[in-house]
Amino acid sequence: MKKLEGKVALVTGGNSGIGLATAKLYRDQGAKVVITASSNETFEKAKAELGHAFDIVKTNVGQLSELDRLYAHIKEKYGKIDVLFANAGIAHFLPTPNVDEEFFDKHFNTNVKGLYFTIQKALPVLNQGSSVILNASVVSVKGIAGASVYSATKAAVRSLARSWTAEIPVSDVRFNVLSPGPVESPIYSKMGMSEAELKGFADGILTNLPAKRFGSTDEMANVALFLASSDSSYIAGADIMADGGLGQI
After folding, report:
1. E strands in 41-80
2. How far is Cα 229 from Cα 4, in angstroms, rounded to an integer?
3. How many CB atoms lie within 10 A of CB 202?
């Protein structure tokens, strides 16, 4: 039997990268999958390329009114959801002296505020026994030069999983964290670095990475499936580091 047979899953930011790989795996494992795309451009692209496979809703998670529309759509069409992968996020690196208020606010608005209210507003439509997976990062525990703002947002995500696990009965909702390490994903091309800077960044990571390679989005999706399914039924409040060993040494 498929692991998510008859389930309804929501993957925010499911139009690319880890989110898309996870959405595809959830679908293949029997779930009806709703994905979000944050802008008109990414929504139209996703609709054209993926509309046959997923229910796609344009949603900027940093805008609470758009989250309200998302959950109104889900409630009307599906009633409840069983799996929520809060994956939408951004990642840009700058050394601390170069960080301005706009850069800081943009990251916290999406990665922390957006995720927080994605979960808060989902609570009324989560089935009992549902699974919520929060996408964080190995940088929540590993110091990376130039990543101070991004790392702080992901440490906040890790903290939220602990708080919600203490606050909300595990029998109602299981909260867990997926913390990817370096992954071959489109998010790296969006960091605002030049090609040479990206290569230097990647080479620097590989030097200290026990696995000596970047992970794949499919490998992250496999962990997200484990956390979504009954295979992880006794796991709550955990941070699963799929990081090639980077955060473990």
Report:
1. 55-58
2. 7
3. 16
- Average pLDDT value for residue range 92-96: 96
Residues 3, 211, 91, 62: what is their CA dihedral angle, to the nearest 10 degrees? 20
Q: What phi and psi values does residue 168 have, to the nearest 5 degrees? A: -110, 130
What are 183's two structure tokens? 């992954």
Pairing of β 173-180 and β 239-242: parallel
Please report the pLDDT score of residue 84 as a whole number. 99
Q: How far is CA 209 from the centre of its chain?
A: 22
> What was the pLDDT predicted at 182?
94
Environment class of 208 (CB within 10 Å of its CB; exposed 0-12, middle 13-18, buried 19+): exposed
pTM of the shown model: 0.93
Domain edges within the chain: 8-242
Q: Which residues contact 157 (CB under 8 A, 6 or more apart)?
A: 111, 112, 115, 134, 135, 136, 140, 177
Could you identify the residue written with the tokens 């590993």?
Answer: 142
> CB-based burial of residue 188 (10 Å sphere; 0-12 exposed, 13-18 middle, 19+ buried)?
middle
Q: What pLDDT score does 201 carry?
A: 67
Give the lowest-confidence range in 53-62, 75-84, 193-202: 193-202
55-58 sheet: strands from edge to edge = 55-58, 32-37, 8-11, 81-86, 126-135, 173-180, 239-242
Catalytic residues: 150
Q: How many CB atoms are closer than 10 A to CB 205? A: 16
By the 8 A CB rule, do 33 and 27 touch?
yes
What is the fold of 8-242?
Rossmann fold (3.40.50)
Structure tokens at 17: 């990268």
